[in-house]
Design brief:
mainly alpha; 73% helix
């Protein structure tokens, strides 16, 4: 059940990140979810490095959105034509 919850939250986080960082992104539902989940993981590791989170503690919702925005920005930079 936690995997389904992670996927749903990842999708919502990915949607919010794509809304806050508008642009032409031909990404589907799967990639939006992946961006949200990866953003949450990045925020969790970044928060642990800065001392905001303990080992194994998940990132908060706002931090996950910020992490997803960072992942989306990096993806756009790498895919630039």
């Amino acid at each position: 059940m936690s995997i389904i919850f992670t996927i749903l939250i990842g999708f919502v986080v990915g949607l919010i990140a794509r809304f806050l960082l508008p642009g032409r992104d031909p990404l589907g539902i799967v990639m939006t979810t992946v961006i949200g989940v990866v953003g949450a993981v990045v925020a969790g590791f970044g928060g642990q490095m800065l001392g905001w989170y303990q080992q194994g503690q998940p990132a908060g919702f706002v931090a996950s959105v910020l992490g997803a925005i960072a992942v989306l920005a990096i993806l756009r930079f790498l895919r630039r034509d």
